[in-house]
Every structure is written in C-alpha cells, then in structure tokens.
Amino acid sequence: MNRERSGGDTVAAGIWNKEKENFSRGKGISRKIFLQLEKPTEEDSRSYQQRILDGLKGKNIDSRMTIRTMGKLYPLCDQAEWEITVSLAWDGVQWWIVDAEAGDTTAFHYGYAVDMGSTTVAVQLWNCETGECLWEADSYSRQISYGTDILTRIFYCKDDPDKRKELQKASIDTILDILKEIEKNTGIGPEQCIQMVIAGNTTMIHFLLDMDAFCVFSTPYAVRADCPGFFGGTELGIPVKGFLYCYPGKSNYLGGDIISGVAAMGLHKSEEIQVFFDIGTNGEIVIGNKEFLLCGAGAAGPALEGGSVRTGMRACEGAVDRVTIQDGKVCCHVIGGETAKGICGSGIIELLSELFLHGWINFLGKLQPEKSSLIRTMDGLPALEYAPGLYFWQEDIDEFIKTKAAASTMVEYMFRESGLSLDKVSRFYVAGAFGKHVNKEAAITIGMYPDMDRERLVSAGNASLAGAGMLLMDKSMLNDLDEILDKMVYIQFGAVEDFLHMMVAAQAIPHTDMERYPTVRKKLAEIEEKNKGA
Amino acid sequence: MNRERSGGDTVAAGIWNKEKENFSRGKGISRKIFLQLEKPTEEDSRSYQQRILDGLKGKNIDSRMTIRTMGKLYPLCDQAEWEITVSLAWDGVQWWIVDAEAGDTTAFHYGYAVDMGSTTVAVQLWNCETGECLWEADSYSRQISYGTDILTRIFYCKDDPDKRKELQKASIDTILDILKEIEKNTGIGPEQCIQMVIAGNTTMIHFLLDMDAFCVFSTPYAVRADCPGFFGGTELGIPVKGFLYCYPGKSNYLGGDIISGVAAMGLHKSEEIQVFFDIGTNGEIVIGNKEFLLCGAGAAGPALEGGSVRTGMRACEGAVDRVTIQDGKVCCHVIGGETAKGICGSGIIELLSELFLHGWINFLGKLQPEKSSLIRTMDGLPALEYAPGLYFWQEDIDEFIKTKAAASTMVEYMFRESGLSLDKVSRFYVAGAFGKHVNKEAAITIGMYPDMDRERLVSAGNASLAGAGMLLMDKSMLNDLDEILDKMVYIQFGAVEDFLHMMVAAQAIPHTDMERYPTVRKKLAEIEEKNKGA
Q1: 8 Å CB contact of A64 and B92
Q2: Which chain A residues are closer than 8 Å to B79 by Cβ?
Q3: Tens-place pLDDT, residues A4-31
Q4: InterPro entries from the xrefs (chains A, B) (predicted)?
Q5: How far apart are CA B284 and CA B252, in angstroms?
Q6: Residue ranges with strand state E in B110-192
Q7: What are phi and psi for residue A281, nearest 5 degrees?
C-alpha cells in the first residue's frame, strides 16, 4: 500500500492533526542547523571541526562530530564559503553532527517512523522541519515466509544463530523494500533521512536485533532486551545518517508498539481516565491517566483477523467487510467491488451483529434455522450462506464469540481491578489495523466493545505508527517513556484465577449480564416493538 | 621490534614506574565487572538486559548496552547461571556494555596504547586490571611506500578521495599487522581488548581518519579536525570490543602525540616549571607548570634522524650509534656488532662532540685537516673517514649544525618569551625515539641541549606512547586534556621575526655565546690544561 498523506485520511487523521497542533520546529530527535561561519585565517586557525562545534555552541547546542562528517568537511566548507548546514542526531544523551552540506538545506530535513507488525510493516516519511507526513507505505513482512504466526517463526530459529540471522535479514529487508518504494514516489531516500523511530512488539524487535525470541512465550517471560534505545543505522545496514531508535517495551506481551500507542494517545498526561485497547491476535489494554497506568495483555485468538474462520481472510480485495440484513437477505459490501472470496474481521462483526439483531442467532450465538432459509446444514453442520457459495458455520461463530469474550473480559477485568467505571473514562481508544475499520455500533452490539457513549469510543488507527512519528518530532517524549514504563503496572491475565470464569460469562451476545449493555437491550426492545407492530 | 615488557627497560621505565605508582584499579576508560545476578522468575521477569543494567546500577554504574551485547545474552546468561562478566567501554560521556562473558573473567582485561608515528608505529598491550604493560611491538608504517616524508604522502592523495583511502588503509593495516604480531606472542587479540588509545601527530590522525591533510602545512594552518574523540573500532575495521580514542591536538604542528607526552609527563600538574621537548624531523617544545603552558613547534630538519647526512641511517643494525676518539683513532660502536654501514643520529652527536673536544673541528664546525690524517679531501670536499670507507663530509656537519641550531633556538626562544631561566626548571624532558638514545653529555657539548644540571635533564623515551597507555588506565586524564588544550598558548616560530637571527647565533659549537655553556667551557679548559701538560 502506498499513499501520499493528504491529512484528510480517515482514522489516523485525528492523531495526525493532534500532532500538527503540538508541532514545534527544532524540538525533535534530529535537527538541521544552517551555519554561517568565518573562514580560517592565520589569526584564527581553529580547525574546521572546532569552528562548527563553536558555531553550534553559539546556538546553545553542545555536540560531537562523527568521523564520517569530519572526512566531509574539506573541500565542502571551502566550496560553500563556510555557509553550511549540519545534520544533528540525538543519541539519547547527546547530539551528534552526522552530516554537513553546502548552503542552507534546512528545508530538506527528513525522518522515518516505522510500525513493525508481525504481518504488516508500515513506514511514514516525515518532513521534520514542517511536521508533515509526506508519504506512507506498507508491505507484508518478509518474515511471513518463515510462518504466518509468530510462534512458527520463533521455533524456526530457536537456538540456531544462522536462522536467527535469516529472520533479522527478513525484518531489515522488509524495511528497505518500503524505503525504496517511498523513494520511488518522493525522491527521498534513507541517505537524506537523519533518524528512524521503530515501534514494534517484543518479538519483532527481538528478530530485528538478532535476539532469540523464545523468551517472549515461555516462562518466566523474561525477554532478552526491552530497551534497545538508539544505535547506529549502519549496525543494521539501514543507511540513515543518524540513529535507529526502538521504542522500549514493558514486558513480553506489552511491547514497544503499545508503549508507542499509549504515548501517542497521551494517556500518561491526561487529567481524566482514558483507555487504550489494541486488539488483534493478541489484545493489550492500558487504562489510566497521569496518576496511574494499569495494563494487561492476553491472547484474543486469530478470529478477529479472519483466521480460524473457514472462509475468513484479511481485509484485502475480495473480502466482505460490511454486512447488513435487509428483507431477509444478507447484503455484503466487498472490498474492490468484485465477487466475494471470504470475510474479514470487520465483516464478521457486522454479520454477527445483524444475525443477532434479526434473531437469526440467539444470545448464545446459536443459529436459528427457522429464521431464514439461508441457514441450513452444510457438510453436516449448521451454517449460514452469507454470500453465494460462502458459508459461516456455527463453529466459526462459537470461535469468534470466544475471541470477543476474551477481548471484552480483558476490559472488564481491568475495570474491576482498578475499581473504576466506564462513566469515568473520557476516551476509550481502540487501536490496531482491526480497530481502524470496525463498525463501533456492531462491535458494541455483539459485546466486543463495552456499551458506552459512542463519542468517547475512538478508533485510534495505527497508534503505534503515530507514536513513532511523534517521537521523531518531539524529543521530550523520551522522558515520557521513562515515566510511562515506570508507572505501568502489568497484570498477566493467564495468572489471574477467575479470568476464565469471567470469560465464560462473556460468551454470550452481548453478555450474560445484560445490565452491562443498556443500549443493546434498548435496541432489542425497539426491534421487538417493531416486529410486534408488523 | 618486539619485546616483552620487563619493567626494567632503560628509558621508558621512569614513566612506567611512575604510572604503576599511580595505578588504581577500575579508574580506566574500560572496566570489567563480575556480576552475580538472580535468574528470572515469574515474579521477577525483568529482561536480561535490565537485570544487567540494574546489577551495574547496584555498583553505581549507569550504562547502556550495545545491540551486539544484547544478542549475546542468551544462552550465555543461562549457561553461566547468571554469573557473568561485562566489559564496559567509556565513550567520553557514558559507559557502554560492549560484551558479556560467562563466569568471572575480570582478570582478562586488556587494552592497547598506540603511538602513530610518521615512520614507526608502536603498540603496547596492557593488562588494564593490573596496570601492567604485557607486550610492546613496533613496525615501520605502511605509509612509507607512499613517501618517506610526510609531504610526499600528503601531495600523493591531495584532493583525491580514493588515494586518501589508500593512506587510511595503510595506517590501519600497520596497526593490524602489529596487533597480529602481539597476538602471536601473547595469545591476546583485538577481540579480547576493550579500548585502544592512539596518540599521533596531526597528519597521522588525518590519514587514519580519512581526512585531507594538506591543511597541516598550508596557510592558514586550520586543520580539518583536532578532537576526534571516541569512535567505534568497527568504523575503522579495528575489531576491539569498545572504542578507539585519538588524543586531541592543539594545532597543526602540535598534535595528539605532543599532548599525550605532556599529559604523561604531567607538566600541567607540576608545581615547578618543567619543559617537554620532542625533537625529530620537527621539534616541539612545551614549557610550563600547572599555571601556564607555553608551546612552540618548528622544523628541525632531517639531520637528527640520519637524513641529509650522506652516510646517515636510522638506528638499526649496522648503524654507528656511539663514537669516541682515542689516541687519534675514531672508535665506533655498531648496532648489531657487524661492519658499520652508516651513522645514526646518536652516533652523529657523539662524533661531533668528540671532534670538537679533540679540536678536529673548530667552534664553527670546520674540519681541521692538520689534526688528523683521517681528515682529507674526498670527492673534492673536506671529509672525515669515521669508519673504514665511511665519510662524514664538511657539508654534513654544516647541515647538522643548522639542525641543532634550530632545535636549541626553539628552547632559547621559549625561555626568552616566558621570561624564565633554566635554573627554574625542575625537569627538562627530552622525548622521542631520538631523545631516547642520545648521549646527554655529547648533546650538551655540541649545544643541542642547554647546559644544565644533568640530573634535571631527563630522557623521556616514547612519551607519546606512555601517555596513550596512561589514559587507558586513568579516565580522569580526559579532563586533564581539556585543561591542557585550554592552557596551551601556541607560538608558530615561522612567524617570529628574530627567530632566524637567534638561529644564526646558535650555529656554533656549542654556541656563539659561550656564557650559555659554562660546563662545556670548563671541559674545554680542562682539555687545554691537559694538552699543555702533555
């Protein structure tokens, strides 16, 4: 996927505009400074290096120079008549002069933000001088050829350094592919960019940095490294001028992608209580404000991404992504407009919501054959034909309900633990590629999202990528991260005794306790009323 | 040259012992720390990285970890049952954990000191845990194939980046050659060493770091870079675990080798006034104490290193290095004990001193044929046959006198400028390979060294190399360097109007002003007395 950022893009736009508002030139983790220096004389024969260091000191910037830059100073400075622009890269502790160019090139100041997902890697090219995102592109991860799920990949290279190197190379090559794509579209390549900020889950960062990731999923869940910090781009063969920065993680399941998302949404700065909920194959939830951050993570299951559903698929061409039931017919919207090939997560949610509201499934999710001729036995099992030749089986529904139950139980559990109620929550952010496309109303109806004020339920889009971009532009976020990591109190759901009991209670539509879903109850009452009238 | 350091080595021993006295474990720019850590549990699932960072914090060390080290932690920590040793490298601002090893390996803590001379490169391998120098080896620089003198090399690669790369490679390969030699003798290679400190003159550092060095010798003498500081060994392909550090320079002619020497001798800390004088092809002089440092530099000429003298040669096998005149005969000591092939600097100084004391040359250095049948016309010019078939011509003497006049004028000038007298000097260090072998008495007799208390005239040996080793073992020297550079007031002799007049006055043996050489005058009087008696 490849697109020029218009600023009007649906979901990420919120964060994007938020970022723009706060943008302040020269506050990022890279800088470009134009210097007009006096040329050397016998009276003032300070070295080329010293003249530049002194020039920056005159602008209150203490810095060091890389030897690569030292090698560039001659004949550059003389040819440019000592009017030069230096590129500065922050390494977490100090500024490094990582490049020098003739003339005033401050307008050409770029950096990358990367969201390193298990399936998809997304990169944004930013103009760090104006705070504009110039381009965004993504691509499937090359890691997929080592397994679609993370565990397969981890086992592939476990205790085999050579194979671990393969995974690392796949990670790096995926990034390089996208950088090339961006360069093709913008003319701006990595050599013109100073910094790259990467947000990824713990396993992805382990693979990227050539670390064994078995620890992420095996007791006692102590990962190899969670604070990679800044390191030279050349160490990984990504030829930016300055450094790569990886967002730190909190624990095995709460990686840099979540920290990045939380930082982007600003939970840690909020006066009011906010929730950050990222759901996909795994679910991660953070609830808190500037006083506290309670967080949890657990497996949700592949159902939300169309896995485990027989005709499930990712949200790409041919996938049913919107469903309504009208006049006894199932009406599907298909991505790309062609014949439906399967159904993706957002389609499943709408399908289930519609089935439930029309009584085609009961509150336990069981298909009611008497309600429609589209519900019939197929391959010996009850199933719904939602599109010509495409079926949604009872077991698909059961699987999905387990997944949504896991997701909603995480939320429920966290609220119980914190002693808070949803009324107190000013923003409930749902993040992730999945959260971006889902129909809020449908997700509430089936009990996947809590029943709350729709205004306060916000699709955050790719918050991890947004956080990466924001850090590029705002060095002070590094301090926030220490604060976030420090404040976060982590609960591993697997360790909670009554989690399973809670999850069973959530395995109804919307929930066994209908008190939790007043708007759904109201909706059902209205439908009943209408049916009575008909 | 290759030798195990016994500690009893003639000249450097002084510095060496001085260093040993001040040695304090754990104060260097590298450290090895043994950690006994708790292994991860579900209750304490801090990352491997964090456990180590916390372990060091418990020892009051804040540090960062390289991604290379992160990649090593598994299975290392588990296999070692969490008893590991980390290698720490200082980068000028912070400690980096650059390696982790199983068990307690603190005893295996090594580093390199390098003196990067134009002709010879010398390397010492240090045990940084005990403050012992384990081995020293040197080698001709591979740069020599691009020209024996520096200017030829500079012009070879001027404005040609590819050729500059050749010079850089020659510099690095010379170091690598010597490291191999040291490894052959000690079993310790660069991968086991943490840091490398390099002291070299400005041109050598420019070549090493791939910088154009034409600036060193051309007006306005603003060099490209004079404070390279710390940088990754891998950046130059020198595979130490941590960093390379290059001593900073003060100016074009006062490079890191001199700063290193001054730091080693401790002029900047001395209550009393001291002099540091390094003579070779160029002469550099620093005079001062903890209050001030006045310094100067200028060309001395190649005569001191056996250049420009027709039968001159470096101090290697076959070179006459000691000379006496007895019973009308010239008695030569030859390095290696074989037939003399030529004469080196220290031999020339003794020869001239003997010729003068025996009246074979007058105070202007002119040969007196009536004094010996060994003085005769050869190739149409007056010459002395100092060894069978080997001649020292009148023009060789003239050339040498010019050189020694340049050297002694530097000293004279500096004293005049500072308004000081030699009586006030507690130590007069003569450094450099040349200073190491020269006969003090002879050098005073011919007026190359000032006529002063012999006790206070100290051969410092390779002070530049000594300073490199000391910095390896003493991080606080980095602060001293800022102080030294700050205090140094530099006088470029070429710019001094009456320098030439002073030099002409010094072109006599020992000097036109005999008042300056009371002990030589006394010696001459004694000889005259003896001759009268005979």
Answers
A1: yes
A2: none
A3: 544 333 334 445 555 556 678 889 999 9
A4: Corrinoid_activation_enz, Raco-like_middle, Raco-like_middle_sf, RACo_C, RACo_linker
A5: 11
A6: 110-116, 120-127, 132-140
A7: -65, -35
What is the average pLDDT score of chain B?
Answer: 91
Higher pLDDT, B414 or A493: B414
Q: How far is A45 from chain B (nearest CA, A)?
A: 4
Contact across the interface for A227 and B49, Cβ inside 8 Å: yes
Asked if A240 and A193 touch (Cβ cutoff 8 Å), the reply is yes
pLDDT of residue B301: 65
Instruction: Name the residue type at position A53.
Output: L
What is the gyration radius of the CA atoms in chain A, in angstroms? 26
Residues of A whose CB is below 8 A from B70: 209, 211, 224-225, 228
The pLDDT tens digits for B337-346 are 989 999 988 8
Cross-chain CB nearest to A47 (options B66, B67, B224): B224
In B, minimum Cα distance to A77 occurs at B224
Inform me whether the pLDDT recorded for A506 exceeds 50. yes
> Quick check: A220 and B74 CB within 8 A?
no
Contact check, Cβ <8 Å, A70/B231: no
How many Cα atoms sit within 13 Å of A408 on the Cβ side? 31
Side-chain-side CA neighbours of residue A40 (13 Å): 24
User: Shortest CB distance from B42 goes to which of A68, A73, A221?
Assistant: A221
Closest by CA position to A473, among listed A244, A240, A130, A232: A130
How far, in Å, CA of A454 to CA of B446, rounded? 99
| pLDDT tens-place string over residues A127-147 | 999 999 999 999 989 999 999
- Residue type, position A485, single letter: L
The residue in chain A having the minimum alpha-carbon distance to the alpha carbon of residue B43 is A220
User: A134 Cβ partners below 8 Å, 6+ apart?
Assistant: A4, A5, A110, A125, A126, A127, A186, A188
How much of chain B, in percent, has pLDDT values that exceed 90?
74
Residue B534 distance to chain A (closest CA, Å): 60
Residue B209: list chain A partners with CB under 8 A. Answer: 67, 70-71
Pair of tokens at residue B135: 């081995």
What DSSP letter does each residue of A230-269 carry, written as one string? EEEHHHHT---SSEEEE---SSSSS-HHHHHHHHHHTGGG
Give the mean pLDDT of B353-375: 95
* Percentage above 70 pLDDT, chain B: 93
- Cα–Cα–Cα angle for B325, B330, B332, rounded to 5 degrees: 105
Best mutation target, A56, A57, A72, A74, to test chain B (most B CBs within 10 A): A74
The amino acid that residue A527 corresponds to is I
